[in-house]
Amino acid sequence: MSEIERVLNAKEKKVKKNFLSKINLLIKNSLNKIFKNYYQFKRFNKKKKTFQGWGLITTDTVPPWKNQDNEENIFFNKTNENLKDLTDKKNFRLTQFEYEGANYQKIIHELSWRHYIVFNSVLLASKNTSQKEVNLAECGVCDGLTIYFALKACELLNIDKKIYLYDAWENLENDNLRFKYDYLNIDITKKNLENFGNNLIFNKGLIPSVFQKSENPTQINWLHIDLNSSEATQSSLEFFFDKLVSGGVILFDDYGGFINTRKTVDKFFKSKNGHFTNYPTGQGIFIKK
What we know:
Low-confidence stretches: none
Number of domains: 2
Distance between the termini: 86 Å
CATH topology of the largest domain: Rossmann fold
Strand content: 15-25%
CATH class of the largest domain: Alpha Beta
């Protein structure tokens, strides 16, 4: 073998050795990562879960409604538990979940964080505006599940209220929406909310045309938008924003789950005076200054 061949062979062996070393290191690092993730997963699964639902899992923190030293949390927890019983007995119908084998106790439990934010956003709006009477509005009412918790917050504060509700309550198959909503019925919603008195104003129709033929508030303290539509969300913001008093709250249900809605909301509030917060539930809250 010539000197040149010996040099080439030595270089080839060195290249192969370096290559194998890199492969071994890569395999070692990958296995370490896999085993680390595996043991972290096992360790996590061994922990007692304090809450699981709506895409959230907690293990080390106790849900606030379990705090028995806080009057508002105690009231929310009782409201939540009572609603479970109402849905089980069909005294509060959830038409969007009426399928064979539906576990209403589990459904309501998994929505607890969502409803806790609804409940507290009304408390916040009411305390911020310091008025004896508050006006609440909701665009996208469905069966009345969200407004139920808003009304219970008003009940806790023992304040006068007027509620303006807007929904098509009909099949929206021809609209550019993710769902048809063909299960909705305004009479079912009215029945669900009948115990809250005569301060509820039901405005049936499509947004934004419904605004032109409805009984509308001149000012509002709290607005909830759950429309799964960026266009309808935009129309609702344009119609209600100037009616929202200083310290008032707008709560969005779809902010984290619908990209177009998020872009619409971000663009709308870019030049507005207030503060916006996004929550792990996908909800977002704007507080007007």
